[in-house]
Amino acid sequence: MSNPSGIVSFTTDFGTADTFVGEMKGAALAVRRDLVLVDLSHDVPPHDVEAGAYRLEVGCGSFPDGTVHVAVVDPGVGTSRRALVVETGRFWFVGPDNGILGRALRREEIRSIHAIENPRYGRPSPSPTFHGRDVFAPAAAWIASGVAAADFGPAIRDPVGLDRSMESRLPGAFEVRVLGADRFGNLALDLHRDALPTVGEDGAPPWDVRVSAPSGEIHRFVSTYGDATGDDPFLLFNSAGYLEISCRERSAQEALGLIPGTTTMVDLIDRQPDGKENA
Amino acid sequence: MSNPSGIVSFTTDFGTADTFVGEMKGAALAVRRDLVLVDLSHDVPPHDVEAGAYRLEVGCGSFPDGTVHVAVVDPGVGTSRRALVVETGRFWFVGPDNGILGRALRREEIRSIHAIENPRYGRPSPSPTFHGRDVFAPAAAWIASGVAAADFGPAIRDPVGLDRSMESRLPGAFEVRVLGADRFGNLALDLHRDALPTVGEDGAPPWDVRVSAPSGEIHRFVSTYGDATGDDPFLLFNSAGYLEISCRERSAQEALGLIPGTTTMVDLIDRQPDGKENA
Amino acid sequence: MSNPSGIVSFTTDFGTADTFVGEMKGAALAVRRDLVLVDLSHDVPPHDVEAGAYRLEVGCGSFPDGTVHVAVVDPGVGTSRRALVVETGRFWFVGPDNGILGRALRREEIRSIHAIENPRYGRPSPSPTFHGRDVFAPAAAWIASGVAAADFGPAIRDPVGLDRSMESRLPGAFEVRVLGADRFGNLALDLHRDALPTVGEDGAPPWDVRVSAPSGEIHRFVSTYGDATGDDPFLLFNSAGYLEISCRERSAQEALGLIPGTTTMVDLIDRQPDGKENA
Q1: Which subunits have 3 or more CB–CB pairs within 8 Å of chain C?
Q2: CB distance B244 to B237 below 8 Å
Q3: Which chains touch A (3 or more CB pairs under 8 A)?
Q4: What is the pLDDT of residue A179?
Q5: Pick from A17, A26, A27: CB nearest B43
Q6: What is the pLDDT of residues C229-275, one digit of tens each?
Q7: Contact, C77 vs C128, CB < 8 A?
Q8: pLDDT confidence bin for A197, thresholds 50/70/90
Q9: In 10 A of CB B145, how many CB atoms?
């Protein structure tokens, strides 16, 4: 692992109307004053661990090596659920052991996973309702200050929700989860470019994709929003590599009636080099 | 007082859709480039000084000694209301003299209170509508740069709203203000753990609390959210030490019909060491 | 131009619920770790270049010399629209060549305008849908690290939307655009104090202003919110110098029915030194 960069990112379901996020940052700065603190998102739907895991996954990648990513969506705060620090080839991740780190970690080379138990690296008399401030933020700051992951507690061999490998998709029909909608109403589907067959010898992707929605089938594929014309919904890979449904200058979520957290059918169709399809 | 930490926190009713907060930060950085700027909350309801005072109080505590906390909820901007810098045992506070600092200051050891009058520490030609940018943010940055509070203006002996001491509560029934609801719909009441009788000789708190709500009485008490079961509302102390009403995975505010800013009846019941109550 | 300050401000229509802004900051920090990153606004209405241009204009001025201001409202991302870096007497501006920089630049002394084409200063394999992260944020960080604007690409002589000079207004009636409403419901009009006749010999402004709204004419003029009395709407110059319609403790936008993006009639009336009007 490279050295800590002194950068800490935050992903939570705390919102920004209350002072929770500021309190976390204060607790981190109380450990080390010269941290660089960056918000990934605090608008994860309350208690929605899966939605938080997706945001952490798509948000963490652009940061420099040595960044500490803290993620706190933690309905079990103050109970016996464990707290984790995970070291990977590029980053550290800090959060509750409830699967919030799962999606991000399947893309990283995991070096170690430790429980956070050593009270030396938390705030004194931690509140049973706010480990974000009293456990996770200080832990992240101590890691960013060079404390070794092993100093926090014992190694963990059975973390929650870290076993999902990315499934390779072959031609056929399958159910895909709607991961969420962004501010523009674009709908991300849990189908990543890396899980699809690679580009064929003629330079064109050797597949077509069709997505079912209540309002009809979507199959037009473009490379960026500005390439689309007309009012029909279209498909593209979003900036995190996931298949996305979009509409020109209106919300695909509103237009199509697809709901984050549900699934939809996707047809992956093999295409012959001559352009014909082979379902 | 310790030395300035170079950290400045911000609490306002400016929201984050407009550029007001960014303009304040720009003005602070124009004084000193290497400040660490942290948002506590900018979603204080517009002009609601009391709500801002509560957020500043609960938000400021986790920061390291030497932090400058700026709070601007300022319906009287540009009129003759005074601007203050307050030095305490741990922090500096900067804001209008309208009570916004009151709740935070009753927990701190006040060292000095000065008016901000010296134009040298503000922006030239200050806008009569935006002292956050032209007076308070630069003042905070100058304090964080080591300027003494006394250099800003004369000592003030009659600040607005600093006289509220925390009232100790004995068994009985009394009206308590609903301070606000957080993102999860948890309702904070203006009854702090520190104002209640301390733990008895048997280790259990020597009191029971019952809160009246339009939908019925709430008396179940837990130590953290994950300890609650069922659908009924329950009580706990929130991470700032205030009595809080919560519901499992739904909004207590919506479920109970209690409105921030109004009051509700709280019964504090003395409990005998044998577990019997003695109202 | 002065040296880079190491400060980068961000104005986008990305919102803060998603991780887009955090990803931009991560990409900037990957170039240079010790940047100071400040949000101006991320709540520009989606794809609304004009609204973004107004926020950048009013938000950028308080920052210290040498700040890099990045603005990304970019419906044409990934198409052939150009990307720009503009050097002015005080700042650098970075954004798409679609007019987003226009309003801010008319107030600055433009030194140079270059296209961003050199892939060395962007992220490898840039996403066609997210130049904010893969082109603009890294470019800003490189500028803040001392890379010269000319290293990014060829000089540009025909940028989009930079030709609007501020029109001086003489007495009479004219249409003025409603620029937007802030969090308090105050409505900003596209009529700047600098475009009006200067103060007369008697010290009073030699003009009266009357604004037409569906609910009637507004003509009361005050210098700050706290000076207004009663319930009627009033006029003042906002903290950016633009004519603003406000109401005491309620939203002028809701009360008056004026819609941002539309126009309204403004009468500028010459006033004699004796206080009489001369329309």
Answers
A1: A, B
A2: yes
A3: B, C
A4: 94
A5: A17
A6: 888 999 999 999 999 999 988 899 999 989 999 999 999 888 765 55
A7: yes
A8: confident
A9: 15
Q: Do B26 and C62 touch (CB under 8 A)?
A: yes
Interface size A-B, in CB pairs within 8 Å, comes to 104
Distance to chain A for B235, nearest Cα, Å: 12
C274: how many CB neighbours lie within 10 A of its CB?
A: 6
CB of B16 within 8 Å of a chain A CB? The answer is yes
8-state DSSP, A64: P
**Which residues is B208 bridged to in the sheet?**
B269
The residue of chain A nearest to residue B4, with distances taken between CA atoms, is: A33
Q: Are B230 and B248 in contact (CB under 8 A)?
A: yes
The stretches in chain B having pLDDT less than 70 are 1-2, 163-167, 198-205, 272-279
Nearest CA in chain B to C67: B26
For residues A36 and C224, which has the higher predicted lDDT (pLDDT)?
Answer: A36
Helix (H) or strand (E) holding C30: helix C20-31
Q: How far is CA C101 from CA C88, C92, C109, C159, C181, in A?
A: 12, 11, 13, 10, 20
Nearest to A249 among C47, C81, C129 (CB): C47
Contact A22 B225 (CB under 8 A): no
The region of weakest confidence among A30-34, A165-169, C69-73, C87-91 is: A165-169
Query: Which of the residues in chain C have pLDDT under 70?
Result: 1-2, 163-167, 198-205, 272-279
Beta-strand pair B207-213/B187-192 = unpaired
* pLDDT score of C214: 85
Chain B nearest C-alpha distance from A26 (Å): 4
The verdict on C53 touching B (C-beta cutoff 8 Å) is no
pLDDT at C164: 62
Mutate one of C73, C129, C136 to test the A interface: name it (highest A CB count within 10 A): C129
Q: What is the pLDDT of residue A202?
A: 59
As given in the structure block, the two tokens for residue A67 are 């960044």
- CA torsion through residues C231, C233, C236, C238, sign: positive
In 3-state terms, chain C is what percent helix, strand and coil (to 5)?
20, 30, 50
Q: Tell me, yes or no, if C167 comes closer than 8 A to chain B by beta carbon.
A: no
In chain A, residues with a C-beta closer than 8 Å to the C-beta of B103 are none
Q: Under DSSP, is residue A110 helix (H, G, I), strand (E, B) or coil?
A: strand
What burial letters (b/e) apply to A197-232, b meaning 16+ CB within 10 Å? eeeeeeeeebbbbbbbbeeeebeebbebbbebeeee
Question: What is the distance between the terminal CA atoms of chain B, rounded to a whole angstrom?
Answer: 45
